[in-house]
Amino acid sequence: MAVIWVVDDEENIRELIRRYLEKEGYTIRTFASAEAVESALVNSAPDMFVLDIMLPGSDGLDLCRRIRLSYSQPIIFVSARGEEFDRVLGLELGADDYLAKPFSPRELVVRIKNIFKRLQPTENSTKQLNLNNISVNLEQRKITINGEEITFTAKEYDLFILLASSPGRPFSRQLILEKIWGYTYEVEERAVDDTIKRIRKKIREKEALPELSTVWGYGYRLDV
């Protein structure tokens, strides 16, 4: 079963999350600070991070930024700081989801299961997508451009595959939110825009021929 690291400076919150997730069969390791997580990453990495924003020393946003320099594993923020700015900034930094305290542990479990479900290879008979100079191995969740592998976070990969599966078809921001994040909050449409921005930057840097196009006032499509 998947390994999840829970990072929160409040022991009661750490233990609450641990109890609920261990009941679901996950292996849980808890941390009270960002520094403890970074020390542990020297030896191993989990399958998912659950981070609080308000931490002693370096906060969760800084930790998320540093994790994303080397790791693509999913990140969920669970924080009392539920303002729009914090949610959007967390998603801009590469987090996959955000829950504001107080939260339902059951909802956290559902969000985690949905993310892991999307990470599993599909039973689609097509195991490979070839889009000009971009190749996608759907079984390995591996994307190469001109033969060079490109690193996407889980959400970036899922969003790219959604668009790549129907080249030329425009997808609305709300539909993307439903399919990739599993919910439709207007404020979170920024998350779609920021994720597209990161994908676009990465594929342009590798000189990809397909282009991520903006459909103004609606959403996005992948032009091949």
Write the layout of secondary structure elements.
Blueprint: E1 3-7, H1 11-23, E2 27-31, H2 34-40, E3 48-51, H3 60-70, E4 75-79, H4 84-92, E5 97-100, H5 105-119, E6 128-131, E7 134-137, E8 142-145, E9 148-150, H6 154-164, E10 171-172, H7 173-181, H8 189-205, E11 211-215, E12 219-223
Parallel strand pairs: 1-2, 1-3, 3-4, 4-5
Antiparallel strand pairs: 6-7, 7-8, 8-9, 10-12, 11-12
Helix pairs in contact: 1-5, 6-7, 6-8
Features:
4-stranded antiparallel sheet, 5-stranded parallel sheet, 224 residues, 22% strand, globular, 12 strands, single chain, alpha/beta, 2 domains, Rossmann fold
CATH class of the largest domain: Alpha Beta
- First CA to last CA: what distance? 38 Å
CATH fold description of the largest domain: Rossmann fold
Mean pLDDT: 86
Instruction: Tell me the number of structural domains.
Output: 2
The proportion of strand residues reads 15-25%
- Count helical runs: 8
CATH superfamily of the largest domain: Response regulator
